[in-house]
Amino acid sequence: MASSLVRDNPLLxxxxxxxxxxxxxxxxxxxxxxxxCFCRLHCCWQLKHLLRGYEHIVKxxxxxxxxxxxxEVCLKSFPERHxxxxxxxxxxxxxxxxxxxxSKLLFLDPEFQTLRLKAEDSSGRQHILTxxxxxxxxxxxxxxxxxxxxxxxxxWTPQSTLEQLYSQFLLVLDSLTKFWDMLDEIDxxxxxxxxxxxxxxxxxxxxxxxxxxxxxxxxxxxxxxMLPDCCLLGAEHVVxxxxxxxxxxxxxxxxxxxxxxxxxxxxxxxxxxxxxxxxSSFSMECGICYSYRLEASIPDQVxxxxxxxxxxxxxxxxxxxxxxxxxxxxxSIVFGDCPYCSKPIxxxxxxxxx
Length: 354
What we know:
This protein is α+β, with helices and mostly antiparallel strands and 354 residues long. It folds into four domains: 1-84, no CATH class; 85-175, Ubiquitin Conjugating Enzyme (Roll), CATH 3.10.110; 178-280, RWD domain-like (Ubiquitin Conjugating Enzyme); 284-348, Herpes Virus-1, CATH 3.30.40.10. It contains ten helices and 17 strands. A hairpin with a 5-residue loop joins β5 (105-108) and β6. The radius of gyration is 29 Å and the shape is elongated.
């Protein structure tokens, strides 16, 4: 950090061995600032007018703030004068960050209004809390967001602090630990077809069972141990026996076991895993557009004839059948012939985009 600081500001020189005290000049938005120990500023009258009332804030900035580049901290992209928060805003923020711990800070924007704080749940997973402070902080509640499967609900009063907000976030993470444990086991021991790159907010997994056969499960983040919503996808002659097992063995679901183990017991199958199969075995291209992924979707319509079994994207098959004079439609279902084997095939009408 110190080396990049001096490289970017050649007129700034360290005064001690720890490189926490500097003397020299930095340039901020065409203003040349004379800086010493972060407590004395000498500059043109325009910048003095801009910084009026903020002098004591500079004195509070210490070596800890070197974690954020000086170009960001020292007014590199200062907003218009009328939008600058009052001086006590910065004093309050620095005090709160010192109480919370600077080690938890991942990012601080040049306006000192958007923070990203890192946190870790009880299983060691890393999470990020984004906090957008209002100019009247702490009188106004900040906006908080995180990659979670449930809404992030926090309480805030004019007496609240970032440390208290962070503690609330940790409690939310703890309440979701079992949910993430369940999905992490599925992700590591099965082949996930959708979503392509699951995030911590995703509650759905489409798990490969075999060639053009999969199950889509929707896990409740508040009750991850309960039976999830399940939808079997694939040719009917393959899916039907699995659906029958699911219905017949539903009573065997054990809330004390994981989702993956329960699915194995209820469906009476072993899921293909990265240890036993290549993902290419389940990534067959659409028989119409000849691609695997069409935007965010993968082929999920399969010809029911056992001798064919060709997969298609729902949108591709719908457009294909709709263009054929021999196809017919009843409500939201289109009936027609498979583009490969000419056997009967059906597809639901593509969802209309709003």
